[in-house]
Design a protein that fits this description.
The protein has helices spanning about 30-35, 50-55, 60-65, 85-95, 105-110, 140-145, 155-175, 205-214, and strands spanning about 20, 40-45, 70-75, 95-100, 120-125, 185-190, 195-200. It is an alpha/beta fold and about 210 residues long. A five-stranded parallel β-sheet has the order 2-3-4-1-5, sandwiched between helices. A two-stranded antiparallel sheet has the order 6-7. The protein is elongated, with a radius of gyration of 20 Å.
Length: about 210
């Protein structure tokens, strides 16, 4: 894979401000957080001993960090939803702030977890965008075609599907990093034609193709 130049995501939390960082698995959340906040405490719930400690006694977080005055990072927060109640208490009653990463917000919603009622900002990390790498890979579809030893020639259905996916991922990255509530985008498909379409519902490839050709 090409060298990662720099992630577009940037998080600068004021003092006493907490946040969620959501994103699909394998987008680089754990690595990015470790590099961006090297001096912060990181609680990695993927470690079995750490997970066992907190899932059996969530109050341990309060006991350990009630006098802590800096940022605490909790990786994969959805693994121990009860920690969110302790985080809520610490935000209200101490000077501790939190950055909580996760890949499955739906799981927390299904379990009626405490989303902190506006006490934490929300950030998202998208898969690598074109300008974050040195090469153009057409992302998941392009990688799968490469592994299957299928070549993507311009004008073929495989190339079209990969390009559609690339456009969709680039727009979703823009939505995550630059404008958190857009619904309509414009694409200059030809010098004389502009196409508008909505990606708020993550259109599948056939629907996206139809929209692109309208």
């Amino acid at each position: 894979m090409g060298k990662i130049i720099k992630r577009l995501l940037d998080i600068n939390l004021p003092d006493n401000r907490s946040a969620f960082l959501w994103g699909p698995r394998k987008t680089g959340k754990t690595y990015w957080v470790g590099e961006r906040f090297k001096d912060s405490v990181i609680i990695d719930l993927l470690k079995t001993d750490v997970f066992a400690d907190y899932v059996s006694r969530p109050s341990l977080l309060r006991e350990q960090y009630r006098d802590h005055k800096d940022l605490v990072i909790i990786d994969e927060i959805q693994m121990v939803p009860d920690l969110l109640n302790e985080i809520h208490w610490l935000i209200e009653n101490s000077k501790t702030s939190f950055l909580m990463t996760g890949s499955n917000a739906r799981k927390l919603r299904r379990n009626h977890a405490n989303f902190l009622g506006g006490r934490a900002w929300r950030y998202s990390m998208a898969p690598l965008s074109y300008i974050e790498t040195e090469k153009f890979y057409l992302f998941d579809i392009g990688v799968s075609n490469y592994l299957a030893r299928r070549k993507l020639w311009a004008g073929t259905p495989e190339f079209g599907k990969s390009f559609e996916h690339f456009i969709l991922m680039e727009l979703k990255a823009y939505q995550a990093y630059r404008n958190h509530e857009p619904s309509i985008y414009s694409l200059d498909l030809t010098p004389s034609k502009v196409c508008k379409f909505c990606i708020s519902k993550a259109l599948p490839a056939p629907a996206l193709k139809k929209k692109l050709l309208e």
